[in-house]
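From the shared-data thread, chain only:
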Amino acid sequence: MLISWDPDAELTAYKQFRRLIWARAMTVAADGRIQIRRYWSPEGREPLRYRRDEEYIEGFLDHYERAVRSCLRSTRTITAQLSGGRDSGSVVTLAAPILAGQGRDLTAFTSVPYFSPDGAGKSRLGNEWDLAQATATMAAPTSGMLH
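Structure, as tokens:
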């Protein structure tokens, strides 16, 4: 999608469905009117300049953890869709210990198709159980807080 559908970033694979692109918020009024506004832009921001490479890592992890923490502000059960990839895996790896520190669990769901969608073997795309389970074990090795 990121490469082949450019320049229309709102395009989806479904008729009459459009994506809400990054840094936008959408409000739907009771009468059905839709308003989309941009809430952030990278333009005009000064690049970060640190002395040591480690400071970039520390700064990124600080921002990333704060972003994950801000998404956990609920009194209800927190769940995640955990694939075998790095995006959801990194979010879950940060979220599980935060919730464990609050005495709360994180339930993660993953894709394990009953039938292979393309007839491919277990090691092909579709069944993400093995990598998702490895991530869950790493994220909460002894607490058992990630189910």
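The helical segments are 53-70, 86-101, 129-139.
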